[in-house]
Amino acid sequence: MNRNGPTALLNSVRKLPTEEMVTSIVVNLKFHRAFFEKHQEEAAALLRAYFRGGGQQVQVNVCDKEELKDAVLHPERHQDLIVRVGGYSDYFVRLSPALQQEIILRSESVV
Fold first, then answer.
1. Are 89 and 56 in contact (CB under 8 A)?
2. What is the mean pLDDT of each run of 10 residues along the chain (111 residues)?
3. 87-107 as b/e, with b when 16 or more CB fall inside 10 Å?
């Protein structure tokens, strides 16, 4: 769980004992679109450091609650909008209305 920011999260994941794991660890990072656009270079440096330090996989999600809400109202405008659901990614407009609302609620707690 990301409680102290993405750097702390990735540092914690890198400390996990992965030697005997059958698969790799996938980390999901969520950023608000405005934050990500302003800090792209820092995000790139963060990911480079994570992989240099032994990190294996990262799923980066750039969220915008207003875009998601607009996709509910106007799905024809957002046919290429992909979201992380929970272990898989899917096109937002293909999700059930209940799941769309869950994704919108989750997007409110983004860095």
1. no
2. 79 84 81 89 94 88 90 96 88 96 78 52
3. eeeeebbebeeeebeebbebb
Tokens of 65: 């609650």
Q: If 0-12 CB within 10 Å is exposed, 13-18 middle and 19+ buried, where does residue 10 land?
A: buried
Estimate the share of the chain in helix, then strand, then coil, as percent rounded to the nearest 5. 50, 20, 35
The answer to whether the predicted template modeling score (pTM) of the entire model surpasses 0.85 is: no
* Contact indicator for 111, 5 with CB cutoff of 8 Å: yes
Residue type, 55: G
> What is the spatial distance between Cα 95 and Cα 87, in angstroms, rounded to a whole number?
14
